[in-house]
Amino acid sequence: MAEDFKKYEYDVIVIGAGGAGAPCCNRRQREVALKLAIITKSLLGKAHTVMAEGGCAAALQNADPRDGWKVHFHDTMKGSKWLANWQMAEYHAKEAPDRVRELEQWGAVFDRTNKESDQSKKLRWTYIPTTSPRWRCNWFGDNSHAPRARNS
Hints:
The protein is of the alpha+beta class. The protein is 28% helix and 8% strand. The chain folds into 2 domains: 1-52, no CATH class; 55-136, no CATH class. The protein has helices at residues 21-31, 69-79, 86-106, and strands at residues 12-15, 36-39, 110-111, 134-135. Strand 1, helix 1 and strand 2 form a beta-alpha-beta unit. The relative contact order is 0.18.
């Protein structure tokens, strides 16, 4: 029975090709020459996080120059009634802008609010008007920088 199956050897196997799995493999492949495999239940880029209409929060300072990581951190803690893990909230607030920009380099397209727009809104617990970029299309689209799936 074992002869009926192909055997593959990898250094790292990642289960899931969503918002964490695919970027993890892409970054790891660039840092260290590893043989990687992504196990996914669907076509890469046709399911997972890229199809979700949720959003992400990152203080990009595009709506208000005061909206930096410290304000984002404070708003996160206040919004959680001060129950959030402060180290994780701080890490997220500091890292989010760079991660959004990294996703854009891979081809992600985000909606953004600029100063001239009326889309910016002041949420009741935030210090200043807050906006967050949102995914609006498949970030693996036609971008040549995006990781590509291949059939073995």
